[in-house]
User: What shape does this take?
Amino acid sequence: MNPLLKSAKWSEHENWTLFLLVETYGKRWADITKYLLGRSDNSIKNRWNCLLRKQASKYRSELN
Assistant: This one.
């Protein structure tokens, strides 16, 4: 296990950042990893697919 990777709960700031990055880059997880330091591309992909993808419309409405 890499000690530099976070295993803590995702913050709301990280959720927003992930949402905005997916809106910008699409599902290019390796590129998104560069902006979410401490999170692996696999954990980012899992976070998106398990939770945020379902809440994306909520985030979009909050942007407007």
